[in-house]
Amino acid sequence: MNVRSQVSMMFHLDKCIGCHTCSIACKNIWTDRKGAEYQWWNNVETKPGTGYPTKWEDQEIYKGGWEKKGRRIDLKGAGKRKGLVNIFHNPNLPVIDDYYEPFTYKYLDLVESPARSDQPTARPISLITGKPIDIKMGPNWDDDLSGTPDFARKDPNLKALSPAEQEAMFQLERMAFFYLPRICNHCLNPACVASCPSGAIYKRGEDGVVLINQEVCRAWRMCVTACPYKKSYYNWHTGKSEKCILCYPRIESGMAPACMHSCVGRIRYLGVVLYDADRIEYAASVDEEDLIQAQLDMILDPNDPKVIKAAKENGIADSTIRAAQDSPTYKFVKEWGLALPLHAEFRTLPMLFYVPPLLPVMASLSEKDQSGQSEKLDPISKFWDDGWLYDTSTEELWGSIDKARFPLEYMASMFGAGDTEIVKDKLKKLMAVRIHRRRVTVGDIDDKKADQVLADVGLTAKMAEDIYYLTSLAKFDDRFVIPAAHREQAIEMLEFTGDERGSSGFGFKEKPARGL
User: Fold this and answer.
1) Which residues pair with 276 in a beta bridge?
2) Fewer CB in 10 Å around end: N or C, the chain?
3) How far is Cα 217 from Cα 416, in angstroms, rounded to an integer?
4) What is the rounded average pLDDT of the residues 343-357?
5) How far apart are CA 472 and CA 369, in angstroms?
6) Within 10 Å of residue 515's Cβ, how many Cβ atoms?
């Protein structure tokens, strides 16, 4: 058992309000400079929608991630052979139009325009060419236009639905959307690391953060192709690749990353998880239906004495182990089983997990007539009138989840590697916590019925209260459990190895060369 630590994140999608404050915080700190104007290390997408860059989830276009070949896996669009063939012309790279051509406005025209009969305007100017352009795309163009055929109806995840089901999603009474914030997943099996011919990308040994050594990068851009989430970007001004660094200078100082610190909806959680590095290759190579469970099985119990002993033998500090024991990510992912990775079928073993959105599930309602008999009512009708009651029987409850506004097949395409049951299990747990809290706060649900709902999904009243607290009432230190940085160990490692980089991750047979 090769125990290692990883800084891991969890986003609660039921709480995201799509304000983009996280994106602006990241942009102002890290990518507000020449060549990085189009880079959004943190972005918030509207689903259904094509995302950023457009259709990034469709690996038939971009050839990102890993693919299984027999008992092993190989990079889908990069690697030694494919990289050599495409090293001077890579047909699988997204172009600037797949992102958007960054622009500003010629504001001086508003100030210096001479007196005239019509109102002057500030023309949009390309930040790349300096010439006037017509704006056609932005970092979240879907936000306002996601109901149009150009965006929502071209969402790659809709392939999991039949044409009739797709059309039903866009009927007025069923139309809905949710926000999907994304950053680099800092994967356990990062395709970007394995694809880099220069060995410039590495995974830090102390916390698992994936970084790019700017001195070693030679702008081959294989990392852009290999990352299935398209979170590695090319800076056209410096000629180097760049990506999210998880604000590691802030983490080393005990501060939350900028996007997480600024989050208005408080949807973001960060903590340490311990995992068995010996199982990386196995977990990434199993059949698709077993991918999620194999990844979850890698995450170890930080309270297990055997795990603690193995962690200490591997040089993991006591403070890191304590942080793992208090980690909100571990609680949501393993202890409560509420969070899932995004597109596990890419086989990168992402360390960013999501609580899928429950969304407005249409409750079954009833109204008692004068004879005391219950009459079923239209669930779309208003239900705040006196005498209307929720039907909270477990059969009706789970049935309503099957009839949720977003088909389970769509959600499973994103969070379940196609398995609807694993997504349904998470949604049932979220609904069970809501039923429990209604029993506590309103008191119109029978205790036996509420306890039965919790038992159906493997939760207790204590667990439901803990989930409610960490979801709704948690303080800053509850949401971000950041271990102390042990810089002295990194310095000792540097003096011993003479190399400031961490481990290179699964994908290299040997330590990569320092440069070409």
Assistant:
1) 3
2) C
3) 35
4) 96
5) 37
6) 12
Ordered alpha helix ranges (H), 291-383: 291-298, 305-313, 318-325, 328-330
Q: Pairing between strand 388-390 and 232-235? A: unpaired
For residue 495, what pLDDT band results from cuts at 50, 70 and 90?
low
Say if residues 284 and 189 touch (Cβ distance below 8 Å): yes
- Whether 438 has a pLDDT exceeding 70, the answer reads yes
Q: Which two structure tokens, joined as six digits, stand for 463?
A: 């667990």
pLDDT of residue 494: 56
Reply yes or no on domain 366-473 having CATH 2.60.200.20: no
The string of DSSP codes covering 441-493 is HT--S-HHHHHHHHHHTT--HHHHHHHHIIIII--HHHHB--PPP-HHHHHHH
103-105 and 72-75 beta bridge pairing = unpaired
**502: which 2 tokens?**
């961490």
* Mean local confidence (pLDDT), 252-261: 94
- C-alpha torsion angle, residues 347, 349, 355, 358 (rounded to 10): 10
C-alpha to C-alpha distance for 280 and 349, rounded to whole angstroms: 8
SS3 156: helix
pTM over 0.90: no
Taking the chain, what is the end-to-end CA distance rounded to the nearest angstrom?
35
Burial class (CB in 10 A: 0-12, 13-18, 19+), 421: exposed
**Packing angle of the helix pair 420-441, 447-456 (nearest 10 deg):** 160
Residue 194, pLDDT > 70, answer: yes
Tokens of 369: 């007539």
Task: Report phi then psi at 334, rounded to 5.
Answer: -105, -50
Are 354 and 11 in contact by the 8 Å Cβ rule? The answer is yes
Mean pLDDT, the chain, as a whole number?
Answer: 85
pLDDT confidence of residue 78: 81
Enumerate residues 6+ apart whose C-beta is below 8 A from 481. Answer: 270, 271, 272, 323, 326, 327, 328
pLDDT in the model for residue 56 = 95
DSSP string, 97-140: TTS---EEE-THHHHHPPP-SS-----EEETTT-SB------TT
The span from the CA of 94 to the CA of 226, in Å, is: 11
Q: Does residue 505 register a pLDDT over 70?
A: no
pLDDT at 17: 93
What span, in angstroms and rounded, lies between the C-alpha atoms of 45 and 22? 12
CB 414 within 8 A of CB 343: yes
Domain range annotation of the chain: 366-473
